[in-house]
Write a structure and sequence with these properties.
It is a single chain. By secondary structure, the protein is an all-alpha fold. 60% of the residues lie in helices and 0% in strands. The chain has one domain. The protein is globular, with a radius of gyration of 16 Å. About 18% of the residues have low confidence.
Length: 91
């Protein structure tokens, strides 16, 4: 029972303080298709990224764009978000 109470308290505290849980930009399975290597350090060419973007669901595209437009989420992914904005026609 104490564990359940502790977890509930942690969840409540994170909601109150605005602590964000990892989003799509932090999900390897969502990000991997845009990169050439498993360490996700080298992005694919613009043409390849465009292909990956076009094959993504509109829901996932919208979620990624929302995160790229959130300064706290996009900062660690600035280069990726810049390319994504260009692909989506926002740059």
């Amino acid at each position: 029972m104490k564990t359940k109470t502790a977890l509930l308290s942690l969840l409540t505290a994170s909601v109150i303080t605005g602590t964000a849980f990892a989003g799509m930009l932090d999900e390897p399975k969502m990000m991997a298709p845009f990169f050439t290597d498993k360490t996700m350090k080298t992005m694919k060419s613009d043409a390849q990224m465009k292909k990956v973007w076009a094959n993504m669901s509109k829901k996932n595209q919208a979620a990624m764009m929302k995160e790229c437009n959130d300064p706290s989420m996009s900062k660690p992914h600035a280069e990726f978000c810049a390319k994504l904005n260009a692909l989506a026609g926002h740059a």
